[in-house]
Write a structure and sequence with these properties.
Helices cover 21% and strands 23% of the residues. By secondary structure, the chain is of the alpha/beta class.
Length: 262
Amino acid sequence: MPSTRRARPLKREVVGSDRCNGAGRRGIVPTMREQTLSEVVPGRIWASERPVWFSGVRLRARTSVLRLDDGSLLVHSPTPPSDGWREEVAALGEVAWLVIPNCFHHLCTPAAAAAFPAAKVVAPTSVTPKNPALRLNLEVRDLATAIPELAVIPLDGVPFLDETLLYHRPTQTLFGADVVLRADESDHWTWRFAARLTGCYKRLSVPPDVRKKVADKAAAARSLRALEALEVQRLVVAHGAVIDEAPVPRLLEAWRLIGVSL
């Protein structure tokens, strides 16, 4: 039976991982359990999930694979590349891009880059001091110049995350990482318990550790308002189910609840 002790506040402290960049005791720790791809949009988008331990709770972390118009693949928020996962992805096409969406989702990218050596690594430059093993080819905010079918929406005003959302026009899909999250009955009991305490259970929410780290709410609001101009059918984030019902209004409402005027 789960303990009724008060949960510690979720604290984002990125350290090395057990199988990617060396062992770490605290923070986000990816595991190497076997993953399989599931289809999100037929012929265009696939995703896999893996468990990660984060500040004492076990979350689900999603990696997405997007087939671009030229047939090449973009991997969003790279996973530890097991042999089985790598074979599944290789069967879909050639991986051309590995995208780190913010300054936290970088731990396993060096291993993914070794598995797909032809791929270009795209990330915010803020990750380079955190991960010396990372080889950066392009700043994530410049990705649309290389891939015109994408639009990039930087989340300004939140340097703690330094996140950039990607919008894929052909599938009308918005990709994020930690811009919002959500727990549900499919999650591990530790995260369900913590999510109830922090208002994230079955409700799209800004991550608890991000709420007090918004440095400029006006800048964040300007970035988020830009989403209203997009025709978004689904929102794919790192921690939570794919949102395909009113994705943008629900995302904006989550940010309104922490005091961002939208």
